[in-house]
Specification:
Strand content: 25-35%
Largest sheet: 11 strands, mixed
Number of strands: 34
Number of helices: 9
Structural class: alpha+beta
Oligomer: single chain
Distance between the termini: 83 Å
């Protein structure tokens, strides 16, 4: 005989602190023994079901009005601090994953002073599978937003949650489901990829667990041997970090020059290099700690101050911020920062236009200029690791499919950097991903916001082809082609020397505008969209859809280019900017194409509407006037 109060098991998605989507029928599910009676009590009402022969059960609650906190009792399990409000899925790769802790230099006062018990966060850790859709997420727990809990959470998701709550007063739940470096293929299910045999057949290989295990073992062995050989042949490992080491014979080098990172033929030299910087600390209070900033380094580093180890970072992207303990610096006499820099593959580098200094209160010591340089050990390039979780279907199976059926308000997608080498394929897969999300959550027009790629890499003086620009265009056209899809234009954000820019609050602001326009019915202005480009004599008239807003005249804009039938683009001069028109002087006699901000990092001022929303980069064919 089945018992009336059987012990149940819940997916990690359902936990104390969870936020349920308001004004939608709500599914709650889990597992028990087969044919067990299940009773769910929520907001004073009881709901009953019986598990099936496999022990799976599901209860559907009617749409709920916002509120909380509540308790949800399911047989002998009680969930507390349950809220009903709006749930947003924030997904993508590293720029969505980038945590609040990484942006504290810019936003520390805002974060430290903010706590809100009606904003809750679910951070899904990495899990992947090549063996079909998984029934459960990896272990995770909903948490209320506090200055502590938010440190490892998506910065974009954090600022977005605040905006939604401050504008609506509603409880907000953010599901942070993003993995650095991930491709769009990794977030797509097998059925979606069957039209692409080369992609689908990769799955056939990866389904072999012996293959995956052996690749990981071989690569781990190779890396271990590489590191061991490096350490055993690097003469500096036991001596060159010492404050008293005699380095007068070392070369002086500009850390931002490229000559030390390559050989005479311009090929990168991998392995280790050592760097030493002597300085006086008379301006500092040496009885207090100080902060050492070393920008970003390619690839890995170990850092010493006066012979004492102060920190290490294993890969290139995180900003280097190391604490110098109190009493370590010398008030009088010489002080030395020593850096052991390791390059695995590519060109080792000190990334320019980053902070290199020692800070303490209002004092700072610059560490720019020449450093003393000595090569440690020269190594062969270490082949890249196989990141299986970036491969087709891996993250969909492990991290997306287990969300199926959970109520959400919208999806925010910040991804594309890892697919920039094939914008054409991305243009085919992005609409499939949007459709896949809508099917997963059972909403045909689930609002979906694409974060367009920001600027990145050095500027170029002349018009040129750009994979990043091509991918931005794919993102723009996808947003225009599907219902309830918005585009958060971020071309005026970003950093030329960092693929992980820190200005995430601006990104969240742009996302919030699109969400309120698409999902809340607010009369938000949007990024002006190019509609037509018409040739009239030596003038080109660009007509924009500006919605309720108008274009802002602003300063001189240099990012328009025009090409004839030879597809050779040259800069075009802006003659005038009207409310919804831009007039260019054509630089070619028979113009065929016009582009705006078509570059990795477009130069010059940008075109905005009067609300400060930038126009998306675009490429459009020119029509002759009649």
């Amino acid at each position: 005989m089945p018992t009336s109060e059987a012990q149940i098991r819940l997916p990690y998605l359902f936990s104390s602190g969870m936020v349920l989507q308001r004004e939608q029928p709500l599914s709650v599910w889990g597992w028990s023994d087969a044919r067990e009676k299940i009773t769910l009590v929520f907001r004073g009402k009881r709901y009953h079901t019986t598990s099936d022969s496999d022990g799976r059960w599901q209860v559907t609650l009617p749409a709920q009005k916002p509120g909380g906190p509540y308790e949800m009792c399911i047989n002998d399990t009680t969930l507390t601090d349950v809220w009903v409000g709006d749930v947003i899925l924030c997904t993508g790769q590293s720029n969505m994953e980038l945590p609040v802790s990484r942006v504290m230099d810019r936003y520390s006062k805002e974060v430290d002073s903010y706590e809100n018990d009606v904003i809750h966060l679910l951070h899904i850790p990495l899990a992947y599978s090549f063996h079909g859709e998984q029934p459960n997420l990896p272990p995770c727990q909903w948490q209320a937003l506090t200055p502590v809990s938010v440190m490892d959470f998506s910065a974009v998701g954090y600022f977005l949650a605040r905006q939604i709550h401050e504008r609506t007063g509603l409880p907000v739940g953010i599901i942070h489901n993003a993995i650095g470096g991930s491709t769009i293929e990794s977030w797509l299910g097998e059925e979606t990829l069957l039209d692409y045999p080369d992609i689908a057949n990769t799955l056939g290989i990866n389904r072999n667990d012996d293959y995956v295990r052996e690749v990981k073992q071989v690569e781990a062995l190779r890396r271990r041997l590489w590191v061991n050989t490096l350490n055993s042949t690097d003469s500096g490992c036991t001596r060159w970090s010492d404050v008293a080491f005699p380095d007068s014979g070392w070369e002086r080098r500009n850390v931002f020059a490229s000559d030390w990172s390559c050989d005479a033929a311009g090929r990168p030299v991998n392995g280790s290099t050592w760097w030493r910087y002597h300085f006086s600390a008379t301006s500092l209070d040496t009885a207090q700690s100080a902060l050492l900033r070393l920008g970003c380094l390619v690839d890995a580093d170990s850092v010493f101050v006066n012979g004492a180890f102060v920190g290490t970072t294993s890969y290139q992207y995180p900003p280097r911020k190391y604490t110098i303990p109190a009493g370590l610096l010398r008030k009088t006499g010489d002080n030395v920062v020593a850096v052991r820099l390791i390059s695995y593959t590519g060109y080792p580098a000190f990334v320019p236009d980053k902070p290199y200094k020692i800070e303490q209160s209002d004092c700072e010591i610059s560490l720019t200029g020449e450093w003393l340089f000595h090569r440690g050990a020269i190594m062969p390039s270490l082949p890249s690791e196989t990141f299986f979780h970036w491969q087709p279907t891996a993250l969909y199976n492990g991290m997306m499919a287990p969300l199926s059926g959970y109520g959400i308000r919208a999806v925010v997608w910040y991804q594309g950097e890892s697919n920039a080498d094939n914008p054409t394929l991305y243009g085919e897969l992005l609409p499939r991903f949007i459709t896949s999300c809508r099917q997963l959550f059972g909403q045909d027009v689930l609002p979906f916001v694409i974060v367009q790629l920001p600027r990145f890499m050095p500027m170029k003086d002349n018009p040129s082809e750009s994979e990043w620009a091509s991918l931005r265009e794919v993102q723009r056209l996808t947003a225009l082609s599907l219902p309830k899809v918005g585009l958060a234009v971020t071309i005026d954000t970003g950093e030329w020397n960092d693929i992980h820019p820190l200005d995430k609050k601006i990104v969240a602001d742009r996302v919030a505008r699109e969400l309120f326009r698409l999902s809340y019915g607010d009369d938000e202005s949007f990024s002006p969209q190019i509609e037509t480009a018409i040739s009239q004599g030596d003038a080109l008239i660009l007509q924009f859809n500006t919605g309720k807003s108008t274009l802002a005249a602003g300063n001189e804009i240099h990012s328009f280019s025009v090409a004839g039938c030879d597809s050779r683009f040259v800069w075009a001069k802006v003659m005038s900017i009207d409310e919804d028109k831009v007039v260019l002087q054509s630089p070619v006699s028979q113009p065929v194409w016009v582009r705006y901000a078509w570059a990795d990092n477009p130069q010059g001022d940008y075109l905005y509407n009067k609300e400060g929303i930038p126009v998306s980069p675009f490429e459009v064919k020119i029509s002759p006037s009649f």
